[in-house]
Design a protein that fits this description.
By secondary structure, the protein is an alpha+beta fold. The protein has 2 helices and 3 strands; from the N terminus they run H-E-E-E-H. A 3-stranded antiparallel sheet has the order 1-2-3, with no helix packed on it. It binds zinc ion.
């Protein structure tokens, strides 16, 4: 890994963390849907901000690789 790669990686992570703070980990989930700016689980508008990661119900949080492409 070159220093430039490392820097890019660091920046990407910072963007991701900012998104998570704002929307919860649902914004990185394969099951997410966005309604009126709110990121939530598909079919469950009140399930937001990463509730799927720890409420034990399905669909359970699943990391979505394609979210990484949103970050420069
Ligand atoms: Zn979710």
């Amino acid at each position: 890994m070159t220093p430039a790669d490392r820097l890019a990686e660091k920046r990407r992570r910072a963007y991701m963390e900012a998104d998570c703070r704002q929307h919860g980990s649902c914004c990185l989930c394969q099951h997410r849907v966005t309604t009126a700016e709110a990121v939530h689980c598909r079919g469950q508008p009140e399930r937001q901000r990463g509730m799927c990661a720890d409420d034990g119900q399905s669909p359970r949080f699943a990391f979505d690789d394609t979210t990484l492409q949103r970050y420069p």
